Amino acid sequence: MDTLIPEICRLLNDTLSPEKAALASATDGLDRLSRFPHFPLSLLAVATGGDSQGLRLAAAAYLKNFVRSCMDDDPQSLELQRFRNQLAQALLQAEPAVLKVLVEVFRLIVVKNFVKENTWPELVPDLTLVIQRSNLIIQNKNAQWSTLNALTVLQTILRPFQYFLNPKVRNESVPVQLEIIAKDILVPLQATFHDFVNKTLSFQDQEQSKLEEIILIICKCMYFSVRSYMPSALGPILPSFCHDLFRILDSLSLDGASDDGSLLRLKIAKRGLVIFSALVTRHRKHVDRLIPSVVDCAFKIAKQSGNTCNLDCISERIISLAFDVISHILESGPGWRVVSPHFSSLLDNAIFPALVLNQKDTLEWDEDAEEYIRKNLPSDIDEISGWAEDLFTARKSAINLLGVIATSKGPRIATATTKRKKADKSKGKQQESSIGELLVIPFLSKFPMPYHGDKASSKIVHNYYGVLMAYGGLQDFLRERNSEYTTTLVRNRVLPLYSSCPFVPYLVATANWIVGELASCLPQAMSSDVYDSLIKALTMPDINGINCYPVRASAAGAIIRLLENEYVPPDWLSVLQVVVNQIANGEKNESSFLFHLLGTAVEAGQDIISAHIPMLISSVVGAIVNHIPPIPDPWPQVVERGFAALATITKSWEASSAGEALEHDDRKWESSQAVVARTFATLLYQAWAVSVQSIDSADRSTSPPPSCLDDTSTLLGLILKFATKMNEIEELKIPELLAVWSDLISDWHGWEEMEDLAVFDCIQEAVNLQRRCDSTNFLLKRISSRVSPGVDQSIIEGVSAFVTKGIMAYPSATWRACSCVHELLHVPSFSFQMQGVKQSIIASFTRAAFSHFKDLRNKPNGLWKPLLLVISSCYILCPEIVEQVLDQDEDNGFMIVACGLAHVSSRSFGPGISSMSEIKLAVITLEKFVERLVAFPLEDGNKVLQDCLVSLMEAFLHLKEVEEKEAEESDSEDIDDEYSDEEISDNEDSEDDDLEETQEDFLDRYAKAADELTEIVGGDIEDGVQDLQLGPVDEIDVREQILSLIRRRHQVLLKGQALSSGLIQQMLDAFPECTPLLQVHRQSQLGHS
Q1: C-beta separation of 842 from 824 below 8 A
Q2: Does residue 652 contact residue 576 with C-beta atoms inside 8 Å?
Q3: Pairing with 294, which of 28, 161, 488, 737 sits 20 to 30 Å away (CA)?
């Protein structure tokens, strides 16, 4: 091991070099050294004892990547037991920067060896001793072990237990490992935790930060232990642990921005509140007696919400969590009894102060309007990705708590006539009122609505802003009221703002958001007033130097929410016209959300406005063209949103107008589709102008960006679909557009299911057009590639490059790509000069399909079928090329493919081949495989030959059954059509009503769902039947081909016991001409038996 260390140090230092050659050489050198068994131990030695921190970090990072790859392949190659023990020792003494990387290495091993396999029994006892003897526990600075490092190791071990290990088990017991850790480590640590809390709260010195860091880690360990499970040993110590957390939380003073000295204390407080939420929601019976104290603690923190304008992110998050804790407690019966006496105080002193407009809001409105919208007026226009801690604001949590309070039921209203009778039970239930009706709405009604004379800085405006925010959290409450109640509230307290306070944009923007939030509660009768108000806000100009962008954006978001909830405008065209005008006149950032709004509006009202869509498309295209920059790399967001809107509009228009055209045979539909096709062709030509114009020029280095590939593919697909005549191909510049498009997709690497789907659909439309106008053979037109300058390639080569990568991509893409292979191989007519292209494409398809199949061959699943059928199509067309590719495999690729196809074609494989085209392709290929194995026997090929023969006969018999079944179904179609709607209705009415789902049913259903998710193997998500396009192959007489094979090769094929007597009988029925040959084999079998 020592001999490797100097060389590893040198190579790691070289990886830090800015020179590419040195970096590549060092990487290759480390890959070469990684084959030595002691390599990970040498890396670990460098990570803990290297000369510089940069070297130590480089070694730790390389070790993390190396262990991750080895754990996936063969963990025993690590000399695992020795390595993991030395790694654990290293963690206990590593410096903080290196420790942070090495714990990731440790986590990989812990999850596998300790959590899943439980094959590291000495881990917990050894760690227990280390913690007991660590420096802060025994109060000895010179101790061998670091308490901070030891508890970091404990935290890493416990982290996987925060989630259920077996979610498919309905009532999963606590893992044994977690029980041991809780009993041997966490319970004894409680005394240390209590002592450290006392020291931290009593005085401040240089050791305080170290103690607080230890307290924070112990809190994280407790959280991981109780988030899902409840170890039996932790129950008795929870009161003591929680009381220490109460003391820490009570010591907080959230009166300003936190400094470095208070940051750890704030993190501890935040973690403590998260623990309370977990205990209340998951283990309430263990903390029922603590709930009053939890409420008091959370209430004290929540009352500081009026100061949020002066707080930083983590302080505001603590207040937000305090509101969340109260919400969780309120949702339980005992919790309601504890919280309900505080309702009025909560509203006055905590919730409402968090809702009112403050200086921080107005400052953020002016400086970062997008951030203001994300935090205060969230909508679906801008999707939020990732974990954004700053979006969990106190205001959002306060709104959520207010909604929970409003829907909670108050005491029943007693009357003098109320009697305890069975017949009066329903009346008593009706008299039960919600807290929203008794307390929340009356409280909010105390605040008057501002009018023209009130300035934005006035208290009345600030308070009414809070009232509007509160209304936005009352959806569930209002949903339980009748429509008149909601109508009165919106008419009297929201809609008047659009007239009385147009000069206070903060209120108008919030009113927009409320209307969107209440979309499911609004009665259709007031839709005219609602849409008039939102349209007024959508077109509101900036006022007195105040940017009204949030007003317009929130109005668009509100209209989208209304449309998604099927709350439609009374006048569709006026709404669309306003949106289109705003797009034409608006700025880039506003056109972006307006495009989204337009797409949603067309999708929602497609049946009503389909006749006007061509006009809308023309307007949208004009706006997009205006925003395309001269050098489009990449396209700006407004252009991307414009193409997305066009794609949505196109799909909606096709869905509505195509059916209308079929029903009425309307020539107007044909005229409209021609106009739209020309408009889209012009747009794509201009968008891709740089590349289109350089096809025949000397400058071939330019290329359009691969932006909006899914949406542009949708538009191109529509152009291809609407081109029905030869002259339209040239008029719409289809070859030029396909040339650029195929060049773009040939270099596609960002595989995402929703995006790739449109590309595959466009490939299908290109093939269909080639089929309609095959004399042009435009798919074989050669162009200059921008991906590889100086190289000419045909359109079909660019498309095939995309399909080849798709074969190797995620399962759905593999299915679609494999389906495209058959289309591409059989549709174009390859001339003699293009035979090289054909062979190259076949080789690429075969190589990709075989590589993917080989990766999956040890775990049979639904992807076997499409991959093997791709190789089958390629083999039928060019057997020599396919065999050359398969011969490059060291494991005899031909035998692997033959065995796999035999397996897939057998009746026992599921999901196997099922459609007529699939079975026919398999039969033809198996016949060729059998012929090949008989003519040129391979080593160990006899077993494969017998399997192929049996599967060949089974598949042929299967094909015969499918053909007969399809013929019967065709004859019975007229009879099936005679079923009347009344009979179908009677059948539907006779179905049993849905039974109410019990808790046991719920748990069973979700356990089964989790079980199914764990069993999904790549490919099983699309086990449907494929109707393959086989071209000339479909004309082959399969029966005659198999009959010829039996006649010519019967002496070899029918010897041995490969064919069962049942299969022979079926063959006798199918091939009576071969009765003498088959009878001889049958008698031979009987003689052997």
Answers
A1: no
A2: no
A3: 161
Q: CA 438, 444, 447: angle at the middle one, nearest 5?
A: 140
Q: Who contacts 914 (Cβ-Cβ below 8 Å, separation ≥6)?
A: 962, 1025
CA dihedral 510, 511, 512, 518 (to 10 degrees): 110
Distance CA 473, CA 72 (A): 48
Q: Which of these, 936, 932, 859, lies nearest to 900 by C-alpha position?
A: 859
Q: Which residue has the tokens 């007026």?
A: 377
What are the residue ranges of helices labelled H in 878-1028?
879-887, 893-905, 916-935, 942-976, 981-989, 999-1015
Q: Residue 627, CB half-sphere, CA atoms under 13 Å: how many?
A: 26
CA dist 506 → 354, 501, 544, 639 (Å): 16, 10, 13, 29
Whose tokens are 């260390």? That residue is 5
Three-class secondary structure of residue 783 per DSSP:
strand
Separation CA 841–CA 836 (nearest Å)? 9
Q: What distance in Å separates the CA atoms of residue 202 and residue 832, rounded to the nearest whole number? A: 91
Look at residue 542 in the predicted model and tell me its pLDDT.
87
86: Cβ–Cβ under 8 A, 6 or more apart, which residues? Answer: 41, 44
Asked if 718 contacts 666 with a C-beta cutoff of 8 angstroms, the reply is no
Is the distance from CB of 347 to CB of 465 less than 8 angstroms?
Answer: no
Query: Which one-letter amino acid corresponds to residue 693?
Result: Q
Q: Residue 59 in contact with residue 50, Cβ under 8 Å?
A: yes
Share of the chain above pLDDT 90, in %: 41
Q: Are the C-beta atoms of residues 369 and 549 closer than 8 Å to each other? A: yes
Distance CA(26)–CA(19), nearest Å, equals: 11
Are 1067 and 1059 spatial neighbours (Cβ–Cβ below 8 Å)?
Answer: yes
On the question of pLDDT at 985 being above 80, the answer is: no
Sign of CA dihedral 1075, 1080, 1083, 1088: negative
Q: Compute the distance between CA of residue 36 and CA of residue 67 in angstroms, rounded to an integer.
A: 14
Is the separation of the CB atoms in 650 and 714 below 8 Å? Answer: yes
| Residue 970, C-beta contacts closer than 8 angstroms, at least 6 positions apart | none
pLDDT over 90 (residue 743): no
Q: Tens of pLDDT along 950-971?
A: 888 888 888 888 888 877 776 6
Please determine, for residue 529, whether its predicted confidence score (pLDDT) is greater than 90.
yes
d(CA 4, CA 37): 11
Amino acid at 783: I
Query: CA-based Rg of the chain, rounded to a whole angstrom?
Result: 36
pLDDT per position as a tens digit, 301-321: 999 998 888 888 889 999 999
Structure-token match 């019990």, residue found: 998
Q: Once rounded to an integer, what is the mean pLDDT over residues 517-522?
A: 90
Beta strands 409-412 and 782-784 are unpaired
pTM above the 0.90 mark? no
Amino acid at 37: P
Residue 536 has pLDDT above 90, yes or no: yes
Report whether the peptide linkage leading into residue 911 is cis, meaning its omega lies within 30 degrees of zero.
yes
Residue 423 pLDDT: 44
Look at residue 408 and give its three-state secondary structure: coil
CA dihedral 180→183→189→190, nearest 10 degrees, is: 140
Reduced to 3 states, what is the DSSP secondary structure of residue 990?
Answer: coil
Mean pLDDT for the stretch of residues 846-855: 93
The Cα–Cα gap between 760 and 752 comes to: 12
Show the CA angle centred on residue 215, arms to residues 212 and 217, nearest 5°. Answer: 110
Q: What is the DSSP letter of 567?
A: -
Using the structure block, give the residue that is written with the tokens 């007033």.
Answer: 529
- Structure tokens belonging to residue 818: 């494999």
- Which residue's structure tokens are 């440790």? 106
Q: How far is CA 593 from the centre of its chain?
A: 23
Q: State how beta strands 432-434 and 409-412 pair.
A: antiparallel
Query: How wide is the angle at C-alpha 135 spanned by C-alphas 134 and 139, nearest 5°?
Result: 120
Crossing angle between the packed helical segments 208-226 and 238-250, to the nearest 10 degrees: 130
